[in-house]
Design goal:
The chain is an alpha+beta fold. The chain has 8 helices and 8 strands; from the N terminus they run αααααββββαββαββα. It has a 5-stranded antiparallel β-sheet with strand order 4-3-2-1-5. It has a 3-stranded antiparallel β-sheet with strand order 6-8-7, covered by helices on one side.
């Protein structure tokens, strides 16, 4: 519209045109605000609903809540385009024709989406389990369409794209109810090996967290540079793993001291050529 030609519209037309544009922008802004609020509301509502349900797994509920949020955002985007007079049916046709280009441009995002679906189907882990993924370890807090959230033991949030999670080895420490605890104790070459083994076995027998079946293993693992290494393998409940590990280390050391069994320090003897 040329506002400086002889056929320029009157001020009333200009004002009406400005008001029309202003109302369109205001309407679009209101639609955007409502859409963003509604997306967050739907995600929170669905997450709360699925959390209370005993029939839906927390991992699935979290994923569906995230999907509901993005569905509302997509609908909001289409509504915004309609506010500006864009024919959404024509737009869909154009997007269908340009699908290949869009797929190439968004291949990272689409791969995260596909990986999220695979994580949901195959369930290598669930919300609340402690896992190690791509060199990062923590408790899984949520799996959304595009990313997985974990909290470390010192309460640091880690966010990993789903494609990185699905494309790497996953160690799930809570998948099984039981775990095997492995420890190695080094004793001096001057100490009695059988006596040291008996001390360790007595400590294990006195702790009810140690399973008797499978039977604990206490045996000589190897002969080190300065110690005889005794390996200990004992099964326990997964929830008792770390507490039992720390308890055995402390108690075995104390019992070794009482039995005068030494844990040698690494040492090196240097001989001079003139001696």
């Amino acid at each position: 519209m040329d506002f400086f030609s002889e056929d320029a519209p009157s001020m009333d037309v200009i004002v009406a045109y400005g008001i029309d544009i202003g109302l369109t922008l205001l309407g679009a802004f209101i639609v955007l605000l409502i859409g963003l609020w509604l997306a967050g509301f739907v995600e929170r509502r669905l997450d709360s609903l699925f959390t209370r349900s005993e029939k839906i797994d927390a991992t699935v509920g979290n994923f569906l809540a995230s999907a509901g949020k993005y569905a509302v955002l997509v609908f909001t985007g289409i509504t915004l385009l309609g506010q500006f007079g864009v024919e959404t049916t024509s737009l869909i046709a154009v997007l269908g024709a340009a699908g290949l280009a869009i797929g190439l441009a968004l291949q990272g995002t689409l791969s995260n989406l596909a990986a999220g679906v695979m994580l949901l189907i195959f369930r290598p882990f669930r919300v609340g389990q402690f896992v190690e993924v791509g060199g990062q370890s923590g408790t899984v807090k949520g799996i959304s369409l595009f990313m997985t959230k974990m909290d470390t033991a010192d309460n640091v949030r880690i966010t990993i794209p789903n494609s990185s999670v699905w494309g790497s080895a996953i160690r799930n420490f809570n998948y099984h109810d039981t775990r095997r605890l492995d420890q190695v104790y080094g004793i001096s070459y001057d100490d009695n090996i059988d006596k040291a083994i008996d001390v360790i076995k007595s400590v294990i027998a006195d702790d009810p967290r140690c399973f008797s079946d499978p039977e604990p293993l206490v045996a000589v693992k190897g002969l080190g540079d300065s110690s005889v290494d005794i390996v200990v393998r004992v099964w326990c409940n997964g929830g008792d793993y770390w507490a039992l590990n720390w308890h055995l280390l402390k108690t075995v050391k104390e019992k070794f001291d009482e039995s005068e069994i030494s844990i040698p320090y690494p040492c090196r003897t240097i001989y001079r050529g003139d001696e």
